[in-house]
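Problem statement: downstream parser choked on a complex file, so we are re-checking the raw output for the zinc ion run. The parser issue turned out to be on our end (a line-ending mismatch), but while we're here, posting the original submission so the record is complete.
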Amino acid sequence: MTGYNVGENEFEPRLRAVSSGLAERKLDSLLVSFGPNLRYLSGFTGSNGNLLVLPGGGILFTDPRYQIQARQESACKVRIAKGPLVVDVLAAIARLGLRRIGYEPARMTCDSFEALKSKLPMKASLEAVTGWVEELRMVKSPAEIARIRRSVETNSRAFEQAVSRVRPGMKEQDLAAELEYRMRRLGAEKPSFETIVAGGVRGALPHAQPTAAPLQSGDLVVVDMGAVQDGYCSDMTRMLFLGSPDAKVKRTYRAVLEAQLAGIDAVRAGASAKRVDQAAREVLKGYGLDRAFVHSTGHGLGLEIHEPPRIGKRDKSKLLAGMAVTIEPGVYLEDFGGIRIEDTVVVTENGCEILTPTGKELRVI
Ligand code: ZN
Ligand code: ZN
């Protein structure tokens, strides 16, 4: 599905949502510098930008490298700074007589904060704003879901192409490189995180880095990969087995698959994130494996690979239709390895749509 255009109109309602919410938060403006938030509100994808959101719209500050790109991508007023952006931002704050300026403490370096604060006009103040834009980003538009879907499809195709080349003796690093090469050849800009390929006992490390170790007969192999396409992330984990799996591997695999299906089953608009996590965890408990499940069941994804909501033990937030989340229970046993199965799904009123097309059987090679 590729019928959605990335028109400038996509950004206007988002910017308006922030503009019109300023008064309620007793702010005159919000300063946004974090890439994904900047892109979400303005369309600008460059690496150096500040967006000053005002009641009537936004001003985008960037440097001369992005002079052409900023005007192509964004409908905001664009100001090209000759030096550090903060100088021009401060000049605008003074010129417009802004008093209360919201900033994103979780998204700003101490250096940037100090540079801004030290030269602020006398009557102006900086007000911490946490999670506002991230909250808007949680529920995806149909155009965003179409992009996530494409990213997921590219990722799954890259997986199939690379996995068909796996043989005993192939290095973890080489399989990771092959997966990333394939996703780029299929239209992705880059991987959405460092591809994980972990064979044998290394699979017990949930975030293992691929090594030069060869994949060997008897190895369980965790492959966790994601693509970024048109700015949007995908995320999938699948398991390979080289040789013939024994009873313990089969039983553990079945437990994780049941847990993953139970998690998916629990997803629907109105369900709490905690409840979804619990559904997956309970299944593993039935197999005596709950203590080997050392992370949360899933996370939101979109412009970033990890976004709110988190789907964990203590997350009370309610799922809403249009959220894109992963469901990825796993078990990690030292001296055995790890098993994780992960799909990307979109929350709907009555359940969810699983975007990941890849089959969930253990791939025996
Ligand atoms: Zn993953
Ligand atoms: Zn994930």
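For whoever reads this later: The radius of gyration is 23 Å.
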